[in-house]
Amino acid sequence: MNSSNHIGSPESPKKGRREFINYLLGGSFAAWLISIVYPIYHFLEPPKVEEVKVSNLKVGKVGDMEKESGKIVKFGSKPVLVVRTAAGDYKAFSATCTHLDCIVQYRKDYGQIYCACHNGRYDLNGRNISGPPPAPLAKYNIAIKGDEVIVFKDES
Ligand code: FES
Asked: What is the pTM of this model?
């Protein structure tokens, strides 16, 4: 009669211990890996920033800007170029170039909106007229209330 049939294989307890240790080591490795990867993931993930909703923005008094000048204002989180033309009218456009997102500026010497990154040019209606910009600048609206100049954007 074989006694191992009743008691079991002499290797069974060792095998069980080995599997248990392998299980523990595997779990430790997984925990170590998570402790490395998780902080890196959170470091690389950009923080969630709420978009500031702005429907209109006072940019100054009518006489504050000289004719043939421009200035950049922040409309929420977006830069907007406000231009006062030679005729004294106000106009406003997105200040983000439609080529590669550089910030445009008003150039009095050209009488145009200019992007210094790649010599892109827009006319005073925001139309792309020269250089690499593929599309016109987005328009903002201007309202004069009393002597305040207000920039606003249609939500439609
Ligand atoms: S980013 Fe404005 S012309 Fe290239």
From this structure: 0.70
Which residue bears the tokens 């702005």? Answer: 54
Which of 93, 96, 100 should be mutated for ligand 1, with most atoms under 8 A from CB? 100
CATH class of segment(s) 56-152: mainly beta
Distance (Å) of CA 8 to CA 14, 15, 16, 19, 144: 12, 12, 13, 17, 95
Atom 1 in ligand 1: residue holding the nearest Cα: 100
Give 3-58 pLDDT, tens digit per residue.
444 455 556 777 888 888 888 888 888 899 999 999 898 888 877 777 778 889 99
3-state secondary structure 54-105: CCEEEEEEHHHCCCCEEEEEEECCEEEEEEECCCCCEEEEECECCCCCCECE
Report the relative pairing of strands 139-145 and 112-115 from DSSP bridges: unpaired
What residue segments make up the domains of the chain, in order of their start?
Answer: 4-44, 56-152
Average of per-residue pLDDT across 124-150: 97
Q: What is the pLDDT of residues 49-63, one digit of tens each?
A: 777 788 899 999 999
